[in-house]
Amino acid sequence: MTLEPSGLGPSGDVALLAAMLRADRADVASYARVLTSALAGALPDGMVEVEQRRGLGDRIAGRDGRTVAVVVHGVDRELELREGARGVEAQVRQIVKGVVISRRTVAVEEWLQALAEDLTRLAARDAAARAALERFLGG
Questions:
Q1: Contact 137, 19 (CB under 8 A)
Q2: pLDDT tens digits for range 82-130
Q3: What tens digit of pLDDT does each residue of 9-52 get?
Q4: Strand 48-53's sheet: what is its strand order?
Q5: How many CB atoms are located within 10 Å of the residue 83 CB?
Q6: What pairs with residue 106 in β-bridges?
Q7: Distance between CA atoms of 56 and 66, rounded to whole angstroms?
Q8: 4 falls in which pLDDT band (50, 70, 90)?
Q9: How far apart, in whole angstroms, are the C-alpha atoms of residue 113 and residue 115?
Q10: How far apart are CA 129 and CA 64, in angstroms?
Q11: Where do runs of H (alpha helix) occur along 77-126?
Q12: DSSP letters of the chain?
């Protein structure tokens, strides 16, 4: 598969990327692993923020703790997945000049589509990101 710098429509590569991220991802930790390991070469430093909660046992054992949230910082929005009372909760926040102007709770499916669109825009602007996404997608 080739990612074209001209941008990708809602079908095709964006839908494929969303489907790949959706497959077998039932908790926030799974999404965090994909975003910080498999896509690490495609994402600029600081784009993905992972929040972990460490209990006493984790601190004593020197473990990182349990992943409870992941935030993807885009140009004009932030995409957050957080562990909630009933599973994974997703939120999209619109950002203007560093200030959150709106928050929307969305289905994980819509969050994944927004993430795929942001990654596609990033790939269109950055040749290194495009190459890393192509490797991730097996192209």
A1: no
A2: 988 888 899 999 999 989 999 999 998 899 889 888 887 877 777 766 6
A3: 334 555 666 666 666 556 777 777 777 766 666 677 888 888 88
A4: 48-53, 66-73, 77-84, 87-96, 99-106
A5: 17
A6: 90
A7: 12
A8: very low
A9: 5
A10: 28
A11: 108-125
A12: ----TT---TTTHHHHHHHHHHTT--SHHHHHHIIIIITTTTSPTTSEEEEEE--HHHHHHT---EEEEEEEE-SSEEEEEEEETTEEEEEEEEEETTEEEEEEEE-HHHHHHHHHHHHHHHHHH-HHHHHHHHHHTT-
96 token code pair:
């203007």
Residue 101 backbone phi and psi in degrees, to 5: -105, -15
In a 13 Å sphere around the CA of 6, the CA atoms on its Cβ side amount to: 2
Separation of CA 71 from chain center: 7
End-to-end CA distance of the chain: 4
Site of tokens 């990033």: 122
Burial 39-74 (b: 16+ CB within 10 A, else e): beebbeeebbebbeeeeeeeeeeeeeeebbbbbbbb
